[in-house]
Amino acid sequence: MSRSRRPHLGRPALFCIALAGATAALGACQYGFTPILADDAGIGELCETNDDCPKSTVFGQKVQLICLTNFSGGYCAIADCTTGLQCPSGSICIAHDSKNVCVRSCESDDDCNANRANHEARCTPDFQYAHESAGPEGFAACLPPSSEK
User: Fold this and answer.
1) How far apart are CA 42 and CA 76, in angstroms?
2) What sign for the dihedral angle of Cα 42, 113, 11, 125?
3) 40, 89 contact by CB (below 8 A)
4) Contacts of 54 by beta carbon, 8 Å cutoff, 6+ apart
5) Measured in whole angstroms, how far is the alpha carbon of residue 124 from the centre of its chain?
6) What integer is the mean pLDDT of 38-54?
7) N or C, where is the chain less crowded by C-beta within 10 Å?
8) Cα 129 from Cα 93, distance rounded (Å)
9) Comparing 72-86, 109-123, 134-148, which segment has the lowest mean pLDDT?
10) How far apart are CA 94 and CA 83, in angstroms?
């Protein structure tokens, strides 16, 4: 699958400052790791299997994204997060289908579809954080429609 990337409207500098103060154990800022953006990590890309999703370096660790096949067109996400601080800038940690995953955050539908030709995702506040303290109020998540008819 070809990938065309565009800058995400995230706030990496603020993310890095918050991360350094809140979770020094991750070491994302203190050790010179540049916060990766959701687009650069491949979050939200189309997929049919896990092999279609990229491996990305997130906070100095190589991570294989997983394919959420219950979404139309599939959806590459980072698995096993517990808070948004473990997700790339421009993404949030949500509970989905018995898994905690990092998905793209958004302000409008336009933020959701740079990597999703013909399988439009919607920006929605209708999701559940992975944990009550996983993220701030007022965020929305990019979620495609279900692949189930």
Assistant:
1) 7
2) negative
3) no
4) 3, 41, 42, 45, 65, 76
5) 14
6) 94
7) C
8) 6
9) 134-148
10) 8
CB within 8 A of 138, min separation 6: which ones? none
Which residue type, as a one-letter code, is found at position 125?
P
Provide the sign of the torsion angle of the four alpha carbons 116, 124, 100, 104, taken in this order: positive
The Cβ of residue 17 has, within 10 Å, a number of other Cβ atoms equal to 13
The bridge status of strand 76-79 relative to strand 66-67 is antiparallel
In the chain, the percentage of residues whose pLDDT exceeds 90 is: 40
> pLDDT digits over 77-98, tens only?
999 998 888 899 899 999 998 8
35's tokens: 């916060």
Task: Locate 137 and state its tokens.
Answer: 């109020």
Reported pTM: 0.74
Q: What does the angle CA 1 – CA 128 – CA 33 come to, to the nearest 5 degrees?
A: 55
Pair of tokens at residue 102: 């990092």
Strand-pair partners of 99: 96
The per-residue pLDDT for 14 is 39
Angstrom CA distances, 109 to 13, 21, 143, 145, stand at: 24, 31, 10, 13
Give dist(CA 3, CA 53) in Å, integer: 11
